[in-house]
Amino acid sequence: MLRSVVVSLVVVALCGCGTVYTPGSATGMASSKKTGTGICKNFFYFFDFGDCTIATAARNGGIEKIATTDFARNGLPYIYTKRTTIVTGE
Questions:
Q1: DSSP H/E element including 7
Q2: CB under 8 Å, gap of 24 or more: what pairs does 16-22 form?
Q3: pLDDT tens figures, 11-46
Q4: Radius of gyration of the chain (CA)
């Protein structure tokens, strides 16, 4: 009985794997030449590492004028989450 419950919980947790993208537009600039990213990692919703702010992503890409922002999140629910902020601009 306990074994089937544990297996069921593992299957449900693994079914939640995937990537969620949230696109955004900051200024309406038609084209962008540079791309920068900021990455945060989280383990067990308790241990956070990294910096995924828009300012950090822009600084990493050498961007002064932001055209678009995108956010992606993937991982295993309750175990590991990776959040990425993607900024494009000039």
A1: helix 2-15
A2: 16/76, 16/77, 17/74, 17/75, 17/76, 17/77, 18/74, 19/72, 19/73, 19/74, 20/72, 20/73, 20/74, 21/70, 21/71, 21/72, 22/70, 22/71, 22/72
A3: 555 555 555 555 555 555 655 689 999 999 999 888
A4: 17
The whole-model pTM stands at: 0.66
Strands 80-89 and 34-43: antiparallel
Q: Cα–Cα distance between 37 and 53 in angstroms, integer? A: 9
Q: What angle do CA 88, 90, 54 make, to 5 degrees?
A: 45
Contact 72, 21 (CB under 8 A): yes
